[in-house]
Design brief:
- By secondary structure, the protein is mainly alpha-helical.
- The chain starts with 11 loop residues before the first helix and ends with a helix.
- 67% of the residues lie in helices and 0% in strands.
- The longest helix is centred in the first third of the chain and has 27 residues.
- The radius of gyration is 13 Å and the shape is globular.
């Protein structure tokens, strides 16, 4: 899974995604990550798409409502979010839907974390992203 923790940014896929967004692709790349998750509808959602979708949602949440525990957010995300324009309501709604979709079977990321001892931490972290949106 390439994860070193249960946070939205604590895996290789999410950090690669963060680099793409902060290097200039911005909200356009965030929107494409959200769309990739939402197009799965009730079909199997692969882990890489889910990781990017969660990272995109967390980045939007950071713009709207910065995390109280800044150690959970990479510095490049905080810096990017502090200079980003507020996202449109429709993009925020898509991010909320992504959070729910990742937590709804069939979802590979959900399956992988369900098998982990850290499942409850991961799940509460994902739910916290939704609450900040």
């Amino acid at each position: 899974m390439g994860a070193w923790g249960s946070g939205a940014f604590e895996n290789d896929g999410a950090m690669d995604f963060v680099q793409e967004v902060t290097d200039g692709s911005g909200l356009k790349r965030i929107e494409s990550a959200l769309a990739a998750v939402l197009k799965s509808k009730s079909e199997y959602l692969e882990a890489p798409e889910a990781e990017e979708g969660l990272a995109a949602s967390a980045m939007l949440a950071e713009i709207l409502n910065p995390a109280a525990e800044q150690e959970l957010v990479p510095l490049e995300v905080s810096a990017w979010a502090s200079n980003a324009d507020k996202p449109l309501a429709e993009i925020v709604e898509k991010a909320r839907q992504v959070v729910l979709r990742v937590l709804t079977p069939p979802s590979e990321l959900l399956e992988l974390w369900t098998e982990s001892e850290d499942f409850e931490n991961w799940k509460s972290g994902v739910e916290a992203i939704g609450a900040r949106l």
